[in-house]
């Protein structure tokens, strides 16, 4: 079906805006592609170093420069549940490569930090910047120029966006992303949230809280709520970086291993040495990026991707804006209810039909561009399937059913959960921001209340414990942007604000920090830019100012006299305490050079 008229118009606008950057990018790609398989340009000494540790057959193959070599970029570590399964992937990938006459080498490892471990801790101030560090680390691995294609092993919050930036920077190479899958379902996410709120109120102790958390996060695989990690997997499939049906298969299963081997073989099949050459930088275009945004809205995905998609697109010379994202939200309906915007987890989503059913529904009314290239071939129609194993252990794909396996989790396009997407852009005299509305009840989409100013999370926590917040208010938590302290996630604020909301108070959050994919039932205007450290209007707000957050009209306003508010001097605070400890001193150059949130909060131009 032809693309929806609004989808076509927004895509055309992005194409036009991006032309100077995209044309230069594609020109550089063609220059790299024209030089052919790249081991040919290496000296004998270069090449000898590159295959010194290989087996004799692999050395012979690489010396001849006619056998494809697959570079593996891995984010494996065994502290992160999502990444622990990757320990066994390189041997599987090497075996799969040999089966089709290729070679595979681990080209490099990249860091992978867990936001769940660092929440509320100093290490969280490195989290956003780890994305760009990951891109650089992957770039170092691929810079050896030994590879005809690359596979990327990464799952979680900043890791996949960083790997995508690297893959597109080395866009002359084909790139296949290989997921590891979600952990099996544990304690329901809503029950975990309930225990957190009870703990915040002092009604249960640390032992009960730890027991609940441990039952929720209990084994290998991605956390099962629909946060940034699982939003990443959705994006990789709907943008064509995954093989069809690969995203949400549990680790340690025969199907998961078969999909991993299939992905390695597919990466080798699409190199310049074969007949289906699919360089990542040509494969991903403006249509692919729009498809990613559409998927984000249709699933109520992570607000972090209002940063990451912008940064990822720019790595391919494509200029996506928050306005584009906002206008797409107006025409894309919400089709998934996965925690925190529902009770189900990603395993329930997958069982209900998962990505295949979602893509099929969106294609029905032209909300996705079908005419795109993917690592699987041409067209998204090939992704309207479910992956299974046949009797011989070979991956087969069957068309998804016409009906959802659970209409409470995954809706048909004719009967969406809401007519617009899960994210909304906000503008006004405070600047620009983002709100996730898919988990916020409609009666809380507009909040008007006095401001209470905080300059870190702990100040709000302390005020809550003192009983100072039993009233209507908008918590203004500022100096949390990229230049101030690396833009940490502020999830420690969710339980106390949730408690106050449940007590009947009108509460909201306004911040230049992040809340990410776990943004829940409390209205939160986040990613506010210009940030306080850049002298943005958020730094002019005073205690008692009336703030109006209107997610219906898409506005954030201080209801003050226009001239008086404009004349106010922005507040400055001492931020030197953010400079030292837990590695923060190593990232000072990132804080100095980070761009604004609406441009991806990136250190790259």
From TrEMBL:
It catalyses: 6-phospho-D-gluconate = 2-dehydro-3-deoxy-6-phospho-D-gluconate + H2O. Its EC number is 4.2.1.12. Residues 68-381 form the Dihydroxy-acid/6-phosphogluconate dehydratase N-terminal domain. Coiled coil: none annotated. The keyword 4Fe-4S applies. Its cofactor is [4Fe-4S] cluster. Residues 408-601 form the Dihydroxy-acid/6-phosphogluconate dehydratase C-terminal domain. It comes from the Bacteria. Gene3D superfamilies: IlvD/EDD C-terminal domain-like. Pathway: Carbohydrate metabolism; Entner-Doudoroff pathway. PROSITE patterns: ILVD_EDD_1, ILVD_EDD_2. Catalyzes the dehydration of 6-phospho-D-gluconate to 2-dehydro-3-deoxy-6-phospho-D-gluconate. This is Phosphogluconate dehydratase. It comes from Pseudorhizobium tarimense. The lineage of its organism: Bacteria, Pseudomonadati, Pseudomonadota, Alphaproteobacteria, Hyphomicrobiales. The gene is edd.
